[in-house]
Amino acid sequence: MDKKLLEKYARLLVKTGVNIQKNQILVVQSPVEVADFTRMVVELAYKEGAKDVQIFWKDELSTKMKYTYAPDEVFEEYPDWQKEFYNSYARKGAAFLNIYASDPELLKDIDPERVAKYQKVTNIALKEYRDRTMTNQNAWCIASVPTVAWAKKVYPDLPEEEAVESLWQAILKTVRVDQEDPVAAWEEHKRNLEKRMEFLNSKKFRYLHYKNSLGTDLVIELPENHIWTGGADFTQDGVAFIANMPTEEVFTLPKRDGVNGKVVSSMPLNYNGSLIDDFSLTFKDGKIVDFTAAKGYDSLKHLINTDEGSAYLGEVALVPYDSPISNLKILFYNTLFDENASCHLAIGKAYSPCIKGGEKMTPEELKKEGANDSLVHEDFMVGTADLEIMGTTFDGEEIPVFINGNFAF
């Protein structure tokens, strides 16, 4: 891969993704396999004024060995030093960059109960860090870099080197690094997303009714004070950042007890190293009361049963079927990309900035407004070429939101 393109990408993540500020700390979570690219990020962050850059290295093969051989009690406690690492840097106002590149089926042969148990322990330990990022107290960005295992899953018929190169090309295109000035391209992209948000916020929808040929027939009620957002986020101190690179979505939160009907997945979900595929969820008064899955049933069951809030939705996101990522016709097996090729929903915790004044509310106040809370937040894809979404305003007016998989406005 062309080094100049990689440097443009690294600069984009530092300058536009987390938007590092002078004398700010940057925390990078990265696979050891992509160390060379991560070092580019580190150097650029220092050159842009970062006070310190801390790296939390991850090694998938070691993780698999742990799940395979370690005794059960290891998965009942999260290491204190790791808990302190994330929570303490969050308190110091650090920005967080997560380079997310996982083997979609790394843990397919591992007991899903082990994985679910440790995931819950992890989420409890890092609740302070997660709460701070989901309320925009800290700038954060999730982005991806190819690894061999992931590239071979996406391009199984190509040799390793060609698969990695092909995945690089696809990633750089989705994040607009293939353009002459990626930062300017992102500014234009943010303005286009803002137009969608302005329309949706002006209509003040109360209900969204989803229907398609897969069998989705779902009515989602929205809280009265909901806000549609997307593109750039802002920290509570007013610093702009891009939480997901790429991003094509505009999103808000559903009313916790206002979801009814059935929704059918349109893409596989890579969840903690296992694939959940061809699944459906049935809701009554907001709660998942039934579910099916042709693959990954136990993993889905553990996700839904994580805590009380994991049986409810926390996000409603709109992405046109005719979007740049969707038009690549690539199944990435990576939620960061697949969710930006498809309308999606999320099980679990809602983003408090999607409620007017929500960043300053207590959990009790957010719940009263209709927001869901949970240890998890997991996106799954529901968009199709024939998806229809009809919106109903608080005044009772019906307005088409999606026709044939795309925005109707």
3D architecture notes:
This protein has 409 residues and is of the alpha+beta class. The protein has two domains: 3-174, 3-Layer(aba) Sandwich (Thermophilic metalloprotease-like), CATH 3.40.1830.10; 201-230 and 247-407, no CATH class. 33% of the residues lie in helices and 25% in strands. It contains twelve helices and 20 strands. It has helices at 3-17, 35-47, 60-69, 80-91, 112-125, 127-134, 148-154, 160-174, 182-203, 297-304, 335-338, 363-369, and strands at residues 25-31, 52-58, 95-99, 140-143, 205-211, 217-221, 229-230, 233-234, 240-241, 250-252, 259-264, 269-271, 274-284, 287-295, 313-318, 344-348, 377-381, 388-393, 398-403, 406-407. Strands 5, 6, 11, 12, 13, 14, 18, 19 and 20 form a nine-stranded antiparallel β-sheet that branches. Strands 7-10-15-16-17 form a five-stranded antiparallel β-sheet, with helices on one face. A four-stranded parallel β-sheet has the order 2-1-3-4, sandwiched between helices. Helix 1 (3-17) packs across helix 2, helix 4 (80-91) runs parallel beside helix 6 (127-134) and helix 7 crosses helix 8 (160-174). The radius of gyration is 20 Å and the shape is globular.
Write the layout of secondary structure elements.
Layout: H1 3-17, E1 25-31, H2 35-47, E2 52-58, H3 60-69, H4 80-91, E3 95-99, H5 112-125, H6 127-134, E4 140-143, H7 148-154, H8 160-174, H9 182-203, E5 205-211, E6 217-221, E7 229-230, E8 233-234, E9 240-241, E10 250-252, E11 259-264, E12 269-271, E13 274-284, E14 287-295, H10 297-304, E15 313-318, H11 335-338, E16 344-348, H12 363-369, E17 377-381, E18 388-393, E19 398-403, E20 406-407
Helix pairs in contact: 1-2, 4-6, 7-8
